[in-house]
Amino acid sequence: MNIRFDFAIHWLFAVVFAILTISGVAMIGAGFGWLLQYDIALADYVHRIAAVFFVVLTLIYIGSEVMNDLRGNISRHRWGIFKPKKYGLFTLTTSVMLILSGAIIWGSDDTNSAAVAFAMFVHEKLTYVALAGVIWHIYQKAHALIWPRFPKEEGGATNLMLEPGFKLFIWVLVTAYFFSAAAIIISAAGPPPGNIQVRKFMAGMDQAMDSSLMGLAGKDMGVNPVIKLTPLVLVETLLAAMATSILVMWRRGNK
Amino acid sequence: MNPTKLHFWQLTGVFVLLVIVAVGLQWHSYQVQEKNMMTQMMGQSMGNMMRTMHASNVTTAQLLTWRTENGGMGNSRQKESTESMQWMNRFTTNTIFILLPFIMAGTAFLLIVWHNLG
Question: Thinking of the domain A5-221, which architecture would CATH place it in?
Fold first, then answer.
C-alpha cells in the first residue's frame, strides 16, 4: 500500500496531539487531575515523551514545506498539516506557540518565575483554543466518519481511508478529542475542587517531582549546555531564515 | 441536516449528555467545605495560579530578563532517579532544545513567504 508522506504526518500528528491533550489536561490543576486518577507522574512522563514526537513531526513537516518553497514548487500536500491559509495557518501558529511556551515551562527553574508563569498560562489557554480548532476541523471533515462508504474523491490520496480498520482508528481518535473537550468542560463547569482533590493533586505533583521527568528537567535546566546554546542558535537561525525568505520573495517577484 | 455531518452531531449529542450528567451529579453531591488558603490557591488551574502569583504585574522587560531568583519555583529535587530515567530526561530535553531554533526559523520563513498566498 502506498502511503503518502503528508497523509502519514497528518494522522501521526493527530494521534500525538490527542495524547498531549489528554496527558496535559490532567496536569492543568486540582479540578482536572481526576482524568488520570491524579497520577501526575504518569501524565508528566507521557506528556514529555509525546512532546518530543510532536516537535519532531512539526520540524519534519516545516522542513518539507521550506524545501518546497526553496525549490520554487507549489505544495501539493492535500493532507498538509500546515498551509498558507485558514486552518493550516491556525495549526502552524498554535503548534509553534505551544512548543515555545512548553519549552519555557519544561524545566520550570528559578531564573524567571514570571516568564514561566506567563508561559504556563499561555500554554493552558492555547490548549483550549487548539482543541476547539480540532473539533471545528472534525466538523468540517465529518465525512471521514461515515462508515462504511466514503467518497473516494475526498480520500483520493490513499485508499487506506476506505479500510474498516482505519475507519475504526479515526473513530477512536475523534472520540479521544471529544473526551478531552468534555473533560475540560466537566472540570470547569463542576464545583471547585475540595480539600481532598487538592491534596490528591499536590501528592501527585510531589510524586511527579520525585519520580518522573519533571524533577530531573528542573535540575538539568541550569547546567545543560544544550539549553544554554539554544538562544544563540535561535538568533542565528532566525536571521538566516529571514534573509532566505527575502531572497525567495525577491526571486518569486522576478519570475 | 447535512447527512455527512450526522456522525459528528451524534458524537456531540452523546458527549453533551455525558457532560450534563457528570456536572449535574457533581453539583448534586457537592458540599460546601471550609477551605484553607492552600485549597483556595490550588483550586484554580496551574496557569491561573502561577499568573496570579508571579506574572500579574510584570513588565515586558521582566519577562525577558533571566536571573537567579530566591524562593521561586525551586524544583531541583528528584530523590531517586534510575539511569534510564536520566537518559530519558537528557534525550527529551536535548531533542526539544536542539530542534526548537530550527522550528522557529522554519516558521518565520514560512510566515514571510506565505504572507501573500493566504
Answer: Up-down Bundle (1.20)
